[in-house]
Predict the 3D structure of the following.
Amino acid sequence: MFNFLRRTRLVKRGLASSKTRRRRASNEMLRNLEQSPWMKVAIFAAFVVGLALLIFSGQQQEPTRIFIFALLILATAIGQLWMNQPQTFLRNSRVFLVFGVIYLQLALTKLLIALCESAVFTWLKPETAWLIAPYAFAPLILCVLLGKNHGLYGAVFVSLWSSILVAKIDAPMLFNGLISGFTAVYLTQQVRRRGRLIRAGFFVGVAIWLLSLTFGLIGPIDLFNPGATDWAMISLQSTFAIGNGLVTAMLVGGALPILEQLFQITTDISWLEASDLNHPLLRRMTIEAPGTYHHSLVVANLAESASEAIGANATLCRVCSYFHDVGKLVKPEYFTENMNFERNPHDDLAPTMSALIIIAHVKEGVDLALKHGLNQQVIDVIQQHHGTSLVYYFYQRALQQLEDARAGGKIMKMREEDIPEVSEESFRYSGPKPQTRESAIISLADMVESASRSLEKPTPQKIEQLVTDLIDQRLADHQLDECNLTMRELKIIAERFRFTLMNMLHTRIAYPKEGKTEAAVREDGARPDVMAAARRPASAPPVSAA
């Protein structure tokens, strides 16, 4: 309150700006709930109550014994999640998502079983429930949202719980759930388009159909007397089995956008949709900062190639690379790639002011990203892609000016304390350092691409030396201490950078001009070797960029 009043007075006196920089909204209560152990206990307690409602609401024999089995499975599930997925276990929202989706499938299964047993619809018989139960619902959602390990986890435990909803252990329900769940996870490990979900649903339906034939849930089929077989009923049952997978996939496709928004998860499908270059910020960049736009596209290619090589999220890297330098839109002319050939605006500024403008593009980028509602992971990359690195050029320029001032001060007999010192902290980005593998890859790609533009006559040896030196420099400056990149992965990243840069920076053949075609023919009638242009000495004019 007092800070607001103080700021208002300064604005009235013209000593402060009336505009404030956008900041990410922080909710202390939500952060506490995310890490609270009591919240985790409440989630598990709610799941236990839900299991009790499903088990004791039916006509099962020995429901108490079945409920004890369900609690033992729950204890195993909690232990597995804690040991194998500790990052998920620490976040209450992720725990709620996993067990919430599993419980939703169990509730749907129980509802369908009750509906088939009630004989409300004459064409729904009790055994039909085994054909229309949504076996792949939880595995599909968890695999697409959280990864294949979570999908397999969901397939195993939802199958175990489903199998005891109708009996102590129901073999057809158990194996249908396991195999169809594993099929769904296998086919959706990398879903980049929603059509892949439908394809996965079809094959899940085929798996359910084959298993149902094996367990005798479809039929009976008399192979020796085909005329005695009720083919109409078999066709209906087969439609139920295959349609089960398709309908489940369509339900998952509709639920994914809602779950992504609720739990702040971005899937590869959403990243691919976000890679559209017609975004307003990118369109502005093509007009106001074309050099930065081209730089961002090259960084995207470098980062995507490197991330694919080490198994990181390549689509995320590409999209974040597009926006990582969006803050340069505020003062594009102060960055090398956008400067014209007439003047350098930094010639009129002190090194500290130049460094301040360069460093500010990170905060300006966060501000623009918040204004346009960009994904939180994009904002994190914008903030982290320079880490706490040094604006080396202007820092060296400031040191040189300091030495010149000291030399001039001795002539003018100035006191040492009257000459201002150069603080290295004033020339460093505010950070934080890259926190994820993807953020670190984009940071390295940004640095490598910028430095590669200064190479004269790039050769494979020069490119290799440049990439190695720059990565070693970042390591020595401790900029990669907080991400999960290993030395082996850094070596692979460096190799991918070298390969991509060599393909992008290669020279091209000089083509003869149209007006000189006749003169180019020698007296003996032979034409000159066009390929020789690529082998001419260094003193010759530069190769045409045709």
User: Anything to note?
Assistant: Residues 36-265 form a domain with the Arp2/3 complex 21 kDa subunit ARPC3 fold (CATH 1.10.1760.20). The radius of gyration is 32 Å. The chain has a mean pLDDT of 84. The first helix runs from residue 2 to 12.
